[in-house]
Design a protein that fits this description.
This protein is an all-alpha fold and 201 residues long. It is built from nine helices and no strands.
């Protein structure tokens, strides 16, 4: 239990103070233990960083898997819309994790970049395969280059919305999400015209 409490405290401290400012003392004080007790669970600050970062990514990955599971039988345009909305809902609801994620990915710690890249690559591969599968199921004859273009546009929109979570107030963020979703719907209308699947509703 203490290990999870330490991870939760670390994420909170990273969100407030960044990697450098989130000292072991601050993390320990948050849990109500002595700083030395942290080393019973984590070898050093970098090990704690890696574990916290992995937890943030796994929570996000699990949330997106659940979104996909809940919408997998819907039309493909709705799947993409749900994935976009899922990103917003998850990061808005888990604001501390989102702030910590930003502070951690921008931290100048070359020795653990490989860990970060691996975790992010795993998620990116899952997202890519999931979106490709949804597109291919609806548009069996879609060209690879066109499928890549659709996914890249979606990722670009999703990234923009993600960063907007940390910049805009709730009302303006919602406007941005709606605008992004309108672009997604226009992409699928064009696909319907190209491949003859008038199923968008």
């Amino acid at each position: 239990m203490k290990k999870q409490e330490i991870l939760t405290a670390a994420i909170l401290q990273y969100s407030k103070y960044g990697y450098q400012g989130a000292t072991m003392k601050r993390i320990a004080d948050e849990v109500g233990i002595k700083p030395a007790s942290i080393y019973f669970f984590f070898e050093n600050k970098e090990a704690l960083f890696i574990a916290a970062f992995q937890e943030i990514l796994e929570n996000h990955h699990n949330a997106m898997e659940k979104v996909l599971e809940n919408h997998i039988h819907e039309p493909v345009n709705r799947i993409f819309s749900a994935m976009l909305r899922g990103i917003v809902d998850h990061h808005t609801f888990h604001q501390a994790e989102t702030s910590a994620y930003i502070s951690l990915v921008t931290a100048p710690i070359p020795s653990i970049k490989t860990h970060i890249q691996k975790y992010m690559l795993d998620f990116d591969n899952w997202m890519l395969q999931s979106l490709e599968s949804a597109l291919s199921k609806t548009y069996p004859s879609i060209q690879t280059i066109e499928m890549d273009s659709i996914i890249k546009q979606f990722v670009l929109l999703a990234n923009g919305v993600f960063w907007g979570i940390n910049i805009y107030d709730a009302d303006y963020l919602e406007e941005q999400v709606q605008a992004a979703d309108e672009i997604i719907q226009s992409m699928f209308l064009q696909l319907d015209r190209n491949y003859g699947h008038p199923q968008l509703k």
